[in-house]
Amino acid sequence: MRIEVICFSKEGSRRIDEIKSRIDGEIQGFYKSKKFSSDVHERVDEPLTEWTAAHWNSDAIVYISSCGIAVRAIAGCVKDKLTDPAVLVVDEKGRHCISLLSGHVGGANELTIDIAGAVGASPVITTATDVQDLMAIDVWAVKHGYQILNKSAAKDFSASLLQGEPCIVAGVGCRKDTPGDKIQSVLEAACEKAGIRLCHIRQLASIDLKKDEKGLLLLARERKIPFHTYSANELMQVPGDFTASDFVKRTTGADNVCERSALRACKDGILLMKKYADSGVTVAFAFENNGMLGE
Question: Does the structure show a pLDDT above 70 at 165?
Answer without folding.
Answer: no
